[in-house]
Amino acid sequence: MEEILKIEQIEKYYGSKSSLTKALDNISFTVGQGEFVAIMGASGSGKTTLLNCISTIDHVTSGHIYVAGADITKLRGNDLNKFRREQLGFIFQDFNLLDTLTAYENIALALSIQNYSAANIDSAVEKVAADLGIAEVLHKYPYQMSGGQKQRVASARAIITDPKLILADEPTGALDSKSSKMLLERFRHLNDARNATILMVTHDSFTASYAGRVIFIKDGKLFHEIHRGEDSRKQFFDKIIDVVTLLGGDAGDAL
Amino acid sequence: MLFKISLRNIKKSMKDYAVYFFTLIVGVSVFYIFNAIETQSAMMKVSASTKEIIKLMTTTLSGVSVFVSFILGFLIIYASRFLMKRRNKEFGLYLLLGMGKRKVSMILFFETLLVGLISLGVGLLIGAGLSQVMSVFVANMFEADMTEFAFVFSKGAAVRTVLYFSVMYVVVMIFNTFSISKCKLLDLLQAGKRSEQVKMKNPWLCTFVFLLSAAVLGAAYYMVTAKARILTADQLMVPIAMGIVSTFFIFWSVSGLLLRIVMSCKKLYFKGLNSFVLRQMSSKINTMVFSVTIICLMLFITICVLASAFCIKNSMNSNLNELAPADLELTQKVNLADSGLTEMYSETQLANSNMSILDVYRACGIDIEADLAEYVSVYEYGSGELTFATSLGACLDEVMEEFRFLNYDTPETILKVSDYNRVAQLYGKETYTLAKDEYMVLADFDSMVAIRNKVLSTGQTIEIFGRTLKPKYKECQDGFLEMSSNHINTGIYLLPDEVVPEEVRVREYLIANYRADTREEKQAIEDKANSLADAEHVGNYMPIDGTSRITISEMSLGLGALVTFIGLYLGIIFLISGAAILALKELSESADNVQRFSMLRKLGADEKMIRRALFRQIGIFFLLPLLLACVHSVFGMMLSNTILETLGNEQMLPSLVITGVLVVAIYGGYFLLTYICSKNIIKER
Predict the structure, then answer these.
(1) Do residues B676 and B614 lie in contact, with contact meaning Cβ atoms separated by under 8 Å?
(2) From residue B519, how far is each of B523, B524, B550, B559 by CA, in Å?
(3) Out of A83, A143, A157, whose CB is closest to B198?
(4) Residue A12, beta-bridge partner list
(5) Which of A86, A104, A112 to mutate to test the interface with B (most CBs of B within 10 A)?
(6) Residues A121-162 pLDDT 10s
(7) ipTM reported for the complex surpasses 0.90
(8) Chain A residues with CB inside 8 Å of B279's CB?
(9) How far is CA B292 from CA A129, B237, B240, in A?
(10) What is the CATH number of domain A35-58+78-254?
(11) How far apart are CA B393 and CA B462, in angstroms?
């Protein structure tokens, strides 16, 4: 399996020398082509910092991040934009759709930024909309859609450029359970049908149980990692809960 | 403590305040500059009558200042309320933390005070500097010597500026306090959370409304240009109202229409950030149709006022040599001995009304004749047999239809052709000869020339003094009797000498050149001629009116300067106001834009792309009202040309260039400022 993401001993420090906070402390892991990985951890564990570093929104203090073999910690300026444009897809907790554009235009924007030929936009958008079950809301504005629909539109926008890696930050955070389930089913579908590589940050065990692998982070360090293997989603969920309990219990002990 | 918060708030929100500050500073300095003209012109060496004109000008300017202060006051209140709205959340936080509304008001009070003091200080400083440049301009206008340059600071103008702006700031403080005390905490905190509803207008409706408004606008344009002559002041309101309403609806529909057109061209719409820019623009214009309309109309007025003002000034100066070719012109009514006008004149005056002008001077003990190098004395004749109505002949009904407001019973001015020729020789103009049965008409007032030409071209004969005369020329000839600063000769009938009986004399004209070379000598003779008014027995004779080359030149210089300064003053203030409102509106959306642009960055848009998108977005926003205002102005200028046709329009181009430079400098300056500020606001942190 080809390595899409390789993280090598990255560290991220905040603050000055006198009061140093280690948001990320010597983390290393890899994500292969077509994997669906969830990163779990409590608030303040550093999972969002990790995601920001991978997405080049934030810079690491030390260590290296390779995406498809290229070291992205060395990128600066417009190369960063080019990297994000061509290699990454983003999905956010609060959707981040442009409220002045329709769903269709929001999705198409990701393509037109890449100077994609206008003639092919139509078919591409319709195909991805069918994949995500949003064909009927394509001509609505964000304010006319439900949260689940908005998040699926955002997902369509992330996937349409065929990025090497899709980064999802708490994608179900603002959704009700029914919409969450529907969205996660779609993620699985994208993972299976399009062979998309997805890295998802969440603190919700249910959401994480849809992934193929879960990485646990605590206080900026890698805590644990479990693979789903041949388990059903339910079994995997129980395993996750066990680790979460341990994670929480440990934290409790520390107090 | 509160003061500290205020200070820090201003520092922190400098980005939001930049345009506000800039506007205040420009407002203060413009206000000072125009009010300081009085003090500055006091330093200049000018004649007494020019001093009078300058005094008139400064009085008018200070009157205009009151009006200007109202406009600026509204602008400042609007701008400060705008900034307040942006900070609702901050105020909500203060209240939530338990700060009393009075204290929040105090914070705002200090902020306004600080902003006011700084802007007044800086504005006055800049104003004092720029007003030195202005004084050169003023001196140039009045053709005064500027050999000695002195730095002048006008205390009066400074005091007035401080006073007016203080009042404005106090009103702002009251407004702020009032709006804080009225606020609900929940509304303040949730102010930023309202989700924006994007209403897309029906494209067909947009197209329809746009076409309809364009048609109405076209009709209004047609009315003010092709039919302008027959419109009275009241009727003129109709096309103006049509223009305003259609301007509003054009802005109401244009964004929808534009969007629809570009959207139909997918290649263009889905290229780079085009779809984003267009949607941003259309959603913004939708929410501020009203302000854009006002701004467009303000720009229109500015352009017209500025261009016309410069035009008037230039043409006045250029007309002078042609229209005031002699030094002095005196006139009095004559032949009133038997008229019985005892209510207006005394018996002695009437009895003396047969004396010539020079006789009156002599009788009053002023020997003017020796001072005149050359002079002619001619009589104007008039008769009820030849009035404006009878002169029109068959064309009367047609003309009456078109010009209802003219007085048709006035007797026409009649001169003997030999008398006119003597005047023409003095003036250096063409002389004419007439056969026994011929007459001709002199006129240079455009619309009257048009009417008279129509009549003359029919070969209209006139019946007068028992003779029938036919026109020598098919159209009016150029010429005039009375000197003035403009083409105002509405018509003089020249008749063969032998036709005109002496009994119908109406007026005497004495036209002369001084026996003098320098301006000072000429002025001295003129003062002597004017001293008649103070002579002991002058009340016994008919009053003598007069005008002179010096007076006319000073009057027209003064009038030109007056119009130019008022035009400049109002134009600049209007420009600032319109541009400031646009800039503030645009910047106030910057907070929303921060999110949108960071989203675009995450999608991988280049900085260059983002800058270009921002530039286009703001550019379209500034350009739309300017474009329509320019179209309006083309027709507005045509109308003002029709109204001011006496002034001649040969100087149009330089006026337009100056206006263009001013508009581009101020409006463009605001555009750049807005762009730079927005760019800073959306910068990645």
Answers:
(1) no
(2) 6, 9, 9, 21
(3) A143
(4) A24
(5) A112
(6) 888 899 888 888 888 999 888 888 888 899 889 988 988 888
(7) no
(8) 98, 100-101, 105
(9) 38, 22, 17
(10) 3.40.50.300
(11) 8
